[in-house]
Amino acid sequence: MDNASDLSAFVSRFHSADLRAVFKFWDICRGRQRFPSWPQLEGQLHALTSEKIWAFEYNRSAGDFTARFARNIPVVGFGKNFRGTRLQDLHTADVYETARAVFLRVLTEPACCRWSGRLFKAGDQIVEGERILMPVGSSEMSRPDGIFGASDFDFPVTGTPERLELMHDIGDWVSLGSIP
Predict the structure, then answer these.
(1) Are 19 and 150 in contact (CB under 8 A)?
(2) Fewer Cβ neighbours under 10 Å: the N or C end of the chain?
(3) Domain 3-175: CATH architecture, name and number where available
(4) Cβ atoms within 10 Å, residue 63
C-alpha cells in the first residue's frame, strides 16, 4: 500500500470530524513534504477553528519538549501557563515518560498517531475521546522538531481539576517514512 493510501485509511478511522479537519489542515500545510514547518503551520492557524489544539517544540540538545502554543480548552485543565512549560512539568514522572516516548516516536519515524478511548483522568472521572499527534519541522525541514496535536472529548473543562492525568488507551500509527 502506498503512503497516500495509508494516510487515507488512517484518517478514515477518526471518529471526530473536528480531528479530521485538524489533520486535513496539517496535510495542506505540509504540501508535498513529509511534515510542515513551524512557519507553514503557525502562519495558517487562523484558518483552523478547533479550540483543542496544542504544540510542543523539541530541543534536541536538552532532550526536552516545551509547550509552544495551545488554544483555550486544554490549557484550563492544567491550571498553569502552558506556553513555555516543559512537558515533564505538566505530568507525573510515569505519565511524562510515556508521553515523551510517544512524542519521540512521532519525531524519529516520523509518524502520525491517533489515540482513542481513555484520554485523561480529571479528578476521579475518566474522559474518553480521541487525540492526534503529527510532526512539525524547523525551517530547514531535515527532520521534525515538534509535535502538533489536537484532542476531541466531551467533557466540560471549566476549571482546574484536583488531578489531571494524561492517558494512552488505543494507539493507531501511520509512518510518514516514504513521503514524498
Answers:
(1) yes
(2) N
(3) 2-Layer Sandwich (3.30)
(4) 9
